[in-house]
Amino acid sequence: DTAVSQTPKYLVTQMGNDKSIKCEQNLGHDTMYWYKQDSKKFLKIMFSYNNKELIINETVPNRFSPKSPDKAHLNLHINSLELGDSAVYFCASSQGAGAGNTIYFGEGSWLTVV
Amino acid sequence: QKEVEQNSGPLSVPEGAIASLNCTYSDRGSQSFFWYRQYSGKSPELIMFIYSNGDKEDGRFTAQLNKASQYVSLLIRDSQPSDSATYLCVSPTNTGNQFYFGTGTSLTVIP
C-alpha cells in the first residue's frame, strides 16, 4: 500500500494548457505539502495544508492553485502552463512539522511543458 | 543565509571508504534533524533522524549532531556503489509549519 500517492507520474503538455496533479495519503497525517524540485535538485516548498486549511503559501504564481477536499487529499491545479513550470512536483505529508515528525514523499510527478 | 546549508558536492569516494556528509544550520532553536537519500529519478526517502547531541548509529550509517556548533553530519561506512545518491539534510521549523531542506550533497561511490 503506497503511503503517499500522486498521479500522474509523467505529464507532457503544451504551453498555455491547464493541468492538475492529484495526491492522496493513507497515513492519517494532518499536514500535506507540495514541493517543486527544479533541475538543480533543490526542493522548494510551494504550499502546506493542515487539516484542509492553507498554512503556507510561498511566493508562487497564482496560476498554481491547491485544493484540499479533505485532510487525506491535496491536489494541485496549474493554469496557463509556462516553460518554466517544467519540474518535478512532489506531494508529501507529515503528522505535523515540529520536532518528532517525519515527512513522507510521494513518487513525484514529472511535468514537462513544451 | 539559508536555514540549512550543505556542500552540493559532488563528493566521490572509493568503494569501502567512509563517506562524510556535512550540514550546518542557522536556527539555534532547531531540535531535530533528518537525513534523506534521493536516488536519481526517485523521491526522497528517510535514512535517519537525530534529536540529541552526539552520535546515533544505524547499520553502516552514523548521524552526528553538535548543537553548540550548529552542525550535523552523516557518515556512511563501507560505502557501496548503491549508496550513490543525493543526500538531503532536513530540519523542521520552530513554528511547526514546515521543514527546512538543504540543497543536497551528491555522492558517488566508485567501484
The separation of the N and C termini of chain A measures 34 Å
Oligomer: heterodimer
Measured between the Cα atoms of the first and last residue of chain B, the distance is 36 Å
Number of helices of chain B: 0
Strand and helix order of chain B: EEEEEEEEEEE
Ranges of chain A where pLDDT stays below 50 over 5 or more residues in a row are none
Stretches of chain B where pLDDT is under 50 for at least 5 consecutive residues are none
Coarse shape of chain B = globular
Largest sheet of chain A: 7 strands, mixed
Produce a short descriptive summary.
Chain A has 114 residues and is mainly β. Chain A has no helices and 11 strands. The mean pLDDT of chain A is 91.
Question: Topology of this protein?
Answer:
The complex is a heterodimer of chains A (114) and B (111).
Chain A: E1 4-7, E2 10-13, E3 19-25, E4 31-37, E5 43-50, E6 53-57, E7 64-70, E8 73-78, E9 87-94, E10 104-105, E11 109-113
Parallel strand pairs in A: 2-11
Antiparallel strand pairs in A: 1-3, 3-8, 4-5, 4-9, 5-6, 7-8, 9-10, 9-11
Chain B: E1 4-6, E2 11-14, E3 19-25, E4 33-38, E5 45-50, E6 54-58, E7 61-66, E8 71-76, E9 85-92, E10 99-101, E11 105-110
Parallel strand pairs in B: 2-11
Antiparallel strand pairs in B: 1-3, 3-8, 4-5, 4-9, 6-7, 7-8, 9-10, 9-11
What does it look like?
The complex is a heterodimer of chains A (about 110) and B (about 110). Chain A is mainly beta. Helices cover about 0% and strands about 55% of the residues of chain A. Chain A has no helices and eleven strands. In chain A, strands 2, 4, 5, 6, 9, 10 and 11 form a seven-stranded mixed beta sheet that branches. Chain A has a four-stranded antiparallel beta sheet with strand order 1-3-8-7, with no helix packed on it. The mean pLDDT of chain A is about 90. By secondary structure, chain B is mainly beta. Chain B has no helices and eleven strands. In chain B, strand 7 (about 60-65) and strand 8 (about 70-75) form a beta hairpin. Chain B is globular, with a radius of gyration of 13 Å. Chain B starts with a strand and ends with a strand. The mean pLDDT of chain B is about 90. Chains A and B meet through strand 5 and strand 10 of A and strand 5 and strand 9 of B.
